[in-house]
Amino acid sequence: MARNTITRSMHDLGLAAWFGGTVANAVALNPAAAQAGTSDRAGAVANVGWDRWTPVNAAAIGTHLLGSVGQLVGNVGRLQAQKGVGSMTLVKTALTTVALGATAYSRVLGRKVSEKTDVPAASGTEPAPATPDDVAGAQRQLAILQWAVPALTGALVVVSSFAGEQQRAFEVKRSRRRRRGWASRGPRVG
Fold first, then answer.
1. CB 22: neighbour CB atoms within 10 A?
2. Which residue of 30, 86, 111, 153 sits 20 to 30 Å from the alpha carbon of 74, by its own alpha carbon?
3. Angle, vertex CA 20, rays to CA 85 and CA 121, nearest 5
4. Helix, strand, coil percentages for the chain (3-state, nearest 5)
5. What letter would DSSP give residue 57?
6. What is the pLDDT of residues 142-165, one digit of tens each?
7. Each residue of 116-142: pLDDT tens digit?
């Protein structure tokens, strides 16, 4: 097997930033916005933080996706030959697609909230009593998505760890032995 250090690094660093940034913003930024002094300032503070994070997050996601494609190209032989790699790749692709969708929808909602910087809010994802209904609805959805995105990207970290385990020499040899054993026996009939 050839080494794919650059694409693996892109995959892992991009995913780490995507996961870690969304966790940090959910744990720290959104609740901290409530400390802005007034409900009029809470939404503005959260918006500034999220607007600053968005280009970094986009770069992280792009880096992750480029690394993922590089890993897929670099491991096409394993994908075709090693048992379990194909199904792991399908799971990983599905998780990535759902995480991208959740992230994109979060950004759409975030823009709706961010466009109205003077709207009162209790925190980054919690409306105040005076928050307009459309912004309050977006904030309620963001309150869920702020945890859904890290859950999905965290699941990607776990699947990626499993993929790394599949590349251990023992796993590759075991897969080859199984294939040779089946090929020498031929297909079973009856």
1. 27
2. 153
3. 130
4. 80, 0, 15
5. H
6. 999 999 999 999 999 999 998 878
7. 777 888 988 999 999 999 999 999 999
